[in-house]
Every structure is written in structure tokens, then in C-alpha cells.
Design brief:
The complex is a heterodimer. In chain A, 16% of the residues lie in helices and 39% in strands. Chain A has 3 helices and 10 strands; from the N terminus they run αββββαβββββαβ. Chain A has a single domain, classed as Electron Transport, Fmn-binding Protein, Chain A (Pnp Oxidase, Chain A, Roll). Chain B is of the alpha+beta class. Chain B has a single domain, classed as Electron Transport, Fmn-binding Protein, Chain A (Pnp Oxidase, Chain A, Roll), CATH 2.30.110.10. Chain B contains 4 helices and 7 strands. A 7-stranded antiparallel sheet of chain B has the order 2-1-5-6-7-4-3. The N and C termini of chain B lie far apart (30 Å). The chains are: A alpha+beta, B alpha+beta.
Chain lengths: 153, 136
């Protein structure tokens, strides 16, 4: 599924807009978890990439259930879209030839495996406590949207 | 029983939340609301549109568990996650919170706050955040 052009533009690491993605995952028994991630990028307008900043519960959930949903927040409010699809994590330690949703681990980790200011400026915020104290990354979460939902508030 | 702090309530009531529900087999669906009210120290009330209700009603009927993240800039500056049981009352989603976690990136990510003494949670907040809610 191709992302709408406006959403793809706003999720691109090249966008200078502050945007937070909230990744909802769930255990296979329905206990859900929602993780804010203040960095996003896209590949081929079809996949959304997010750094895995040691998101323990998200990893546990994705290990048994790839179903996931993405919603979005900005300083001005929320975006109208929710993406539903599947997600998994490319981790440091995966063989370079390991593939996920058509992307090789080598390709993903080389480009996005150290998601620092070389990819995107650290989130601008007047609240220093909002910044990660140490920017350490375990891998890259890859989200593949299968459906886009517009639910009006 | 979890107990929300004034700061937690202020962010949720001021900027709303992203509310994740899931089917009983674990397929999540999220609705985003712009505001909330706190009925008590552990109960949140969100007014949903007809479309939002339609979207999550089936999930809640088979699985009441929900996960909540603060909305807008609260998604970063109010680094909490709330979990509990949701119940639809009219056009409202009423959530009784029974777990509260820190989502601050770094070593405190995933720290469970509701099991700490309440005064320790207040100290945790005041040592890390200078605000008591969203900008007015």
C-alpha cells in the first residue's frame, strides 16, 4: 500500500516538521501497548521506519504478534490518519542478508541503524527531559501499512 | 489501584490521548481524542465521535483492555503510558486505569510507576519535569 503523498512527506526524515508516531502493538491475547517514537522515515512511500530505542514491551509483543497500528501527533494536534498493518524489528546482530518486508538488514542498519543527527535533528523541544539521555539504538522497527483509516474526532 | 498525579491528569485533560484497543486475538486499533476528563484519581472519561465509537465498539466488547498515550506534544513531554479496562457509557469511553508506566526514552523507559509509593511518583515527576501540564 502506498502512503498518501501528504503523509509520506510528513513522515520523511527530510521533513523539518516535528512529528511523533505512536506505535500500538499487542500480545496475541489482546493486551495492547502504545509507544511514542519521535523519529520517522519512509522507504518507497510504502514502509515506515522507526528507531528501536530499547522498546522492551514492543519487542515482546512483536515477537509473538506482528499486528500493529500507527497514529500521529504534532505540536499543533493530531493527524487524521491511522495506519493499520504489520511490524517487526531489524536488530543489530541480524545477518546482513536477513530480509524483512523486502528490505535487507544490511541495507536498513547501514542507513537507519544509528538514528542520530545525521538522519534527523534531535527533536526540538523546550523541555530537556524529553530528549533521550543516551541515544542508543537496538535496531529499526519496520512498519508495513496494509490499510489507512480516517476516523473523525 | 493506580493513582494518577495532577500532572498526568492535566496533560490528558488538556491535550487528549491516543487510545489503543485490540481484538481478543491482538489486532490493534487506535482512536485519537482531543480532550478527556478525570472522573477520579484512577478513572478517565473520553467522549468519542459516532465514527470512533463504531470503530472500537467491537474490540471493547470482546476485550476491555486499552493502552493510552498522551496526545499532541504530550506524546513527548508527558512520557507516560496508562493501561486499564475500558467500558462504553453512552458516547463516552470510561477507562479505569490499573497500570502506569514511564515512556521516557532511555533507562527509565518501561518503568512501572503505579507500584511506587505515590509520594515517590510525585518526586520522580518534579525531578524530571518543570511543568505541571501543557502550556496554557
Amino acid at each position: 500500500m502506498r502512503l498518501p503523498a501528504e503523509l509520506a512527506r510528513r513522515l520523511s526524515a527530510e521533513s523539518d516538521e516535528t512529528l511523533v508516531a505512536l506505535l500500538a502493538t499487542s500480545l496475541s491475547d489482546g493486551r495492547s501497548n502504545i509507544l511514542p517514537v519521535p523519529f520517522t522515515d519512509i522507504v518507497h512511500d510504502e514502509l515506515v521506519l522507526l528507531p528501536d530505542l530499547f522498546a522492551q514491551k514492543t519487542k515482546v509483543n512483536l515477537n509473538e504478534n506482528r499486528a500493529a497500528a500507527l497514529s500521529f501527533a504534532t505540536p499543533e494536534g493530531t493527524l487524521p490518519w491511522v495506519l493499520e498493518g504489520v511490524a517487526d524489528i531489524v536488530q543489530w546482530g541480524h545477518p546482513r542478508r536477513f530480509t524483512l518486508f523486502g528490505l535487507s538488514a544490511g541495507q536498513v542498519l547501514e542507513r537507519w541503524g544509528d538514528w542520530d543527527e545525521s538522519i534527523e535533528p534531535v527533536l526540538e523541544t523546550s523541555e530537556p527531559a524529553a530528549r533521550p539521555t543516551v541515544f542508543a539504538q537496538r535496531g529499526v522497527i519496520v512498519f508495513k501499512p496494509e490499510r489507512i483509516v480516517e476516523v473523525q474526532a | 489501584m493506580a493513582r494518577l498525579t495532577p500532572r498526568m491528569k492535566n496533560w490528558l485533560t488538556g491535550l487528549g490521548a491516543h487510545i489503543a484497543t485490540a481484538t481478543s486475538s491482538g489486532v490493534p486499533a487506535v482512536v485519537v481524542v482531543e480532550s478527556a476528563t478525570a472522573d477520579s484519581d484512577d478513572t478517565l472519561r473520553f467522549t468519542l465521535s459516532a465514527q470512533q465509537l463504531s470503530y472500537v465498539r467491537a474490540n471493547l466488547a470482546e476485550n476491555p483492555r486499552v493502552a493510552i498515550g498522551p496526545g499532541g506534544i504530550g506524546s513527548v513531554r508527558a512520557a507516560y503510558q496508562f493501561k486499564g479496562n475500558g467500558l462504553i457509557e453512552g458516547s463516552d469511553l470510561v477507562v479505569t486505569v490499573d497500570e502506569i508506566y514511564s515512556t521516557k526514552p532511555g533507562p527509565e523507559a518501561g518503568l512501572r510507576l503505579d507500584v511506587l509509593p505515590f509520594d515517590d511518583v510525585l518526586t520522580f515527576e518534579s525531578s524530571r519535569w518543570r511543568d505541571d501540564g501543557p502550556p496554557r
